[in-house]
């Protein structure tokens, strides 16, 4: 799927919590499987696997769920958030309702993780039984741009990041630096530490799509840089015009 379609979905997606019990068509499921096979990682070299859950393997009110399993390496949770958000946006763009299930794992003994991996994230999905799209940014309950960044030259890009979903809607990410070199960090939180790592990956996915929409390229590196007080370094983004 074209990145522009995923980018457009950022501005109308909604977490869907009510579903029609009927399963999606085989064509819809095969289209999703094909998309997941081509999802871009944030950190190449981390082995990941998407797995569609069978009925009875996981507790959810939706007819379908997909779990992402990952090898445990530096940045593995952030990488998982980056990858799964692409799936979330794909579903929204195809009028399929979806919702992140931050703590919902497959039932023990019913769905073993692929060898060498651990469960990291779940997304449930299906035909929505409620309105699934927002009409505009005013329908999002989110922080203001100056609460998530000091890089005012990129506010037109960071609007997409501002609308990204996060656990308990905390939006833990913060973007500092300048328009060519952006330092991405997250607020310290003992209670939400693991989920906030995933959330930062979600934000970086939206950031990447927004930059591409503006004709920019971005490369990410992970050597630690100074960050604001009470924040944890996550990534450095190097931004340039597309060649």
Automatic annotation (TrEMBL):
Residues 6-210 form the Putative nitroreductase TM1586 domain. Keywords: Oxidoreductase. InterPro entries: Nitroreductase-like, TM1586_NiRdase. Transmembrane segments: none annotated. It comes from the Bacteria. Belongs to the nitroreductase family. PANTHER family: NAD(P)H NITROREDUCTASE YDGI-RELATED (PTHR43673), NADH DEHYDROGENASE_NAD(P)H NITROREDUCTASE XCC3605-RELATED (PTHR43673:SF10). This is Nitroreductase. It comes from Christensenella tenuis.
